[in-house]
Design brief:
Elements: H1 11-20, H2 32-47, H3 56-72
Helix pairs in contact: 1-2
Length: about 80
């Protein structure tokens, strides 16, 4: 497996989407905006060349599905 490195310029934006996708501890909320942040996080990886077209199916089945299950089961509620 090859090591993946983000440019220093990409880290703040990619990190922001990742942090925002988990909800807000102060407001104790979660909604579609958080899911949109998660998708934007994955989209950043695609645009940075970290996810290839042949990975799309696995990303949806393994990554996005597990993210959804995390929230649907209540495990992820802050």
């Amino acid at each position: 497996m090859e090591t993946v490195r983000l440019s220093k310029e990409a880290i703040p934006e990619v990190s922001k989407y990742f942090v925002e996708c988990w909800g807000n501890r102060k407001r104790i909320d979660y909604g579609t905006g958080h899911e949109a942040s998660f998708l934007a996080w994955l989209y950043c990886f695609d645009k940075l060349g970290l996810i290839k077209e042949e990975d799309y199916k696995a990303v949806v089945i393994k990554v996005f599905f597990k993210y959804g299950i995390f929230w649907l089961t209540g495990i992820g509620f802050l």
